[in-house]
Structure formats: C-alpha cells, structure tokens
Please model this.
Amino acid sequence: MKYKYNGTGNNGTFAWIMQRISGVVIGIYGLVIFYQAMFAEAGMHNLSLPLLLPLLIFGMWHTFSGFKMITDDYVASPTKRFVLFLIYWGVGIALLVIGYDAIRQYI
Model:
C-alpha cells in the first residue's frame, strides 16, 4: 500500500495549543461570570461588555477550532474540507455578531 506524504507531524501544534489555552480562558471567565452573577449585589446587571466579550470570542474560537480539527481528522477531500471551513467561518461570524448584539442589548 502506498502512503501519501501529508506534511510534518507538527502542522497542527499551534491549533492544538490554542485549543487548550482557549479552554482554560473559557473556564476562568466562566467562573468569574458565575461568581458575579450569583453573588454580586447587582446580579447579572453587574456584568459588562468588556467581561462578556472575551468569553464570547474565546468560546467561538474554541468551538470552531474544534470543528476544524474534527474535519481535518475525518474528511479526506481537501475540497470538502475547504467548503466546511467556509461554512464554519460563515456560521461563526454570524453567531459572533448575534452574540455581540445580544450582550450589548442586555447590558
């Protein structure tokens, strides 16, 4: 059986590290927001856009980076991967805009 060269073994290292970093940031921000929402005097109205926006951005990065990694692992066709990647970007940008607008209206 012939094997095709697919590049070096460290092609996805940056994405893998960013996936772990964004997971940690989401966890920390999630705990801070939970604490403020549950135990602060003003409750959810005490939350601000500078606090919620990084959670939204890192959450979107983490989610769609994970989708891309799964696609890279299980979709062999470069064309199909590219189309899925464009769909991920489109959905991601749409959700980011919707999330930003929802946060801005709530605060």
The chain has one domain: 13-106. The mean pLDDT is 79. The helical segments are 13-39, 49-74, 78-106.
